[in-house]
Design goal:
single chain; about 150 residues; mainly alpha; about 60% helix; disordered N terminus
């Protein structure tokens, strides 16, 4: 059995993955400052916020979904930041979280960051399987764009 294939219904997988993501984010936010204190980490946090806003502005509001499931009537967004990376919202979450964790470093926050990274990787793999089933052009899109970070992953 694959790590990314569970035996319970798909909507529960989505709820579980989003629940872990939100729990990690809330705990990161409540265990340190919400605004990075140094200009380096503050710049990274602002870049993450800007990327997230750009990604949100590039998709239609009726297809936006915190869950990895593909909504009926969805279209494959390939413009804006989606032209360069397939999951800019995940990238934005990671950049903001890394900035906050590195700004106020502690072992519990680092552990939360590691759990968050693992959760987002499982979530995006699951989401990519769903997108590939729903959109015939998704595999070609995967080959021409980075997953989270151009030239890295």
């Amino acid at each position: 059995m694959s790590l990314f294939h569970w035996s319970f219904p798909y909507q529960y997988q989505s709820y579980f993955l989003v629940g872990i993501q939100l729990l990690c984010l809330v705990l990161i936010l409540f265990t340190g400052p919400v605004v990075a204190e140094s200009w380096i980490w503050g710049g990274l946090e602002l870049f993450g916020i800007a990327l997230g806003m750009w990604a949100l502005g590039s998709m239609s509001l009726h297809t936006m979904n915190i869950f990895p499931d593909v909504r009926a009537g969805s279209i494959l967004v390939t413009h804006g930041p989606y032209h360069y990376i397939r999951h800019p919202m995940y990238t934005a979450v990671l950049l903001i979280s890394f900035a906050l964790i590195l700004s106020e470093w502690s072992w519990p926050r680092v552990c939360l960051g590691i759990i968050l990274v693992g959760d987002l990787i499982v979530k995006l793999r699951y989401e990519e399987r769903l997108l590939a089933k729903h959109f015939k052009s998704y595999q070609a899109y995967q080959h021409r764009t980075a997953c989270l970070f151009p030239y890295l992953f």
